[in-house]
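I have a small job for you when you get a moment. Can you supply me with one protein entry, sequence and fold together? It will help me judge whether the discrete encoding reads sensibly. Write everything out right here, beneath this request:
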Amino acid sequence: MSAIHAYPIEAETSNSVEPVDNSTPPNAVVAPAAQPSVNVLEQQLNSPEQALSSLKLFLMVTVLSVAPAVLLMTTSFLRISVVLGLLRQALGTQQNPSNQVIGALALFMSALIMTPTWTTVYEEAIVPYSDKEISGEYAWEVARSSLVNFMGRQIDRAGNSEDVWLFYDHLPENARKSQTGNEPSYFAASNQSGSATTALSYHDIPMQALLPAFMISELKTAFLIGFIIFLPFLVLDIVISSVTNAMGMMMLPPTTISLPFKIMLFVLVDGWHLIIGMLLESFG
């Protein structure tokens, strides 16, 4: 049996690879990371032209974001949405119809009611301006005149013209001037009895006073309509509450019993047709 001899294995030093030390020396200086956004911001702040352009862009984005809501407030949307919300509370159906359904119905009804006004704005302001027949300032005055006619007509129909004076009295002195350079006739002169000597034109009222006055007028009208809607359902709640108390059912909430009767009464009298028709007729 032959002996097995073990020979030591020598490491090959010629082909060995020394490890690379990637650690950073303790005294090494690390360059700071670049901050391009901060530098750009400093440049814009130091340059008035760039700062002004950024401010204009910010204001434009802000105006575009709130423009749809402001435009809706000049229409019949406010009154319709509030009345439909009060109707839902009177029925006691909690979240039915949902806010999306109420908003969509109010939007479609507003489009129907505002069609004459928007048609006038489109034909007399937008089309001539796009054809470069009139200036932008004149187009704005034509569009504003159509909206003022609608808002003023609704304020007069509701008898809420005093709301206009409420906001007009809080305008700055330089804003209390009409296009002719004079204050509206209601404030210009009054006799000893306090009555206006001449008629008022809503076109002399700035939009910053006329628009909130129109919104308050719409809220008043919507609450009055909501009060009329609430009455029959309130009577039904009182009757059912009296019946349940007389029968000794103290632990049963009356609203639980009255809800199906409210829905049945509303369907039998064709409530949706009556309320929607009343809303459409309220705008004349």
